[in-house]
Amino acid sequence: MSGRPATTIPAPEGAPIGPRRRVRGARLDDRFNVIGAAAAGVAVAVLLFGWVSPLSGGVGWVLVAYLAFLGFYALLVSFTSDAQEVKDRLMSVLLSSAGVLLFGALVFVVAFTLVRGQEALPHPNFFTQSMELAGPLDGLDMGGIVHAILGTLMQISMALAITIPLGITTALFLNEVGGRFARFVRTISDAMTALPSIVAGLFVYSAIIVLITHQRSGFAAAMAITVMMLPIVIRASDIVLRLVAGNLREAAYALGSTRWATIWHVVLPTARPGLATAVILGTARGIGETSPVLLTSGVTAVTNLNPFAGPMISLPLQVFDFVKSPEPTMIARGFGTAAVLILLVLTLFALARVVGGKGPGQLSPRHEQRVLLASGRDLQRMNVRNDLAAGDPSPRPESLPTSSPTDLTTKETSS
Question: What is the domain range of residue 292?
Fold first, then answer.
């Protein structure tokens, strides 16, 4: 392969041959333009804020330096490029700056919470005890948030038990059935995506607590979380199911498959990674809600494992209850609880990226072995059928089910 000449595309006759443009990475002159413009922008900001004008303030300094950087960068690029490339370079810089700004804000929030919560996180009792025997004046070596962790897990589990089948079934109805009513349901689900969380809490408070249970409970909080999670799961699942190629459904129908069999054996397996991502994103949305559980779950310092009787606190509500105290130890517990909640949400988003990163048809090694074993069984069954049709009752040696998934993988690799 290394001895073969590289494939080249001949240029039109008379066309100027310029340097090859690198699609990935930056050229030397591009790096020079960025570095030079950044140095010039900093210099202009220093002159304006320290020498020329009586300006002050860190935010203003950064803003002036950035605007000067954009101006000098456009000027440097214009020396060697036309107006269209100048616009393209400026837009690339603006988009890159927006990404850096958002990433920096995320890092700041996470780092600030972890730093403020480092007083409470190293204590083992913070994860194994409740606040039943700890007061506001007690040290961090007493009390913990195990009751809030268990409450969050129970509430989100009940919400998922309702959201997953209802959300995915609704998305299947919108894509596979359709019709005028489907358009109405899609409009309602899109509108519920922007529903304020306090409205969901008020709805559950009026419909369940006031009319039925007459007390705050973990079940009522789970229903409020469900109202917040359901539009996210429906909308994300709807988009994922739209991406399933229509020729897959047509091929299944052409082979005589029914609509239900096509959905179960073709549509859902193809969209499985995207559906898992939709569920995890909905879970991350519901697990951090504070307003709905503030009205429906109630505040308690003890561990309550019965979601249908008595208040059951969750992590977001525990943060709200801790940080409103004037005691430094309670505020430290609040930031520690917020750090646990942030790490839990980031873990869910990372899991969504890992699960959603697998495309349709990408199988795990264990699943590949199961597929190879099933193919081997199909081959053995067809060989036995052919032998019986030919009048040979003794099965051939290769028709005997003696192969393991490892053997089949080895044979497939060697062939």
Answer: 146-356
Q: What DSSP string runs through 196-237?
A: -HHHHHHHHIIIIIIIII-S--HHHHHHHHHHHHHHHHHHHH
**CB of 186 closer than 8 Å to CB of 170:** no
Give the pLDDT means over successive 10-residue stretches in the chain (415 positions): 56 54 63 86 84 76 88 88 86 90 91 88 87 83 88 91 92 86 88 85 89 88 91 90 86 85 86 85 84 86 87 89 87 90 83 64 70 84 81 53 45 43
User: How many domains does the chain divide into?
Assistant: 2
DSSP SS3 for 312: coil
Cα 118 from chain centre: 26
Task: Count Cβ atoms within 10 A of the Cβ of residue 203 and give its class: 0-12 exposed, 13-18 middle, 19 or more buried.
Answer: middle
Domain endpoint, select from 114, 138, 170: 114
- Asked if residue 230 and residue 300 are part of one domain, the reply reads yes
Residue 65 in tokens = 């330096």
Rounded-to-integer distance, Cα 229 and Cα 246, Å: 28
Q: Do 300 and 258 fall into the same domain?
A: yes
pTM of the model: 0.69
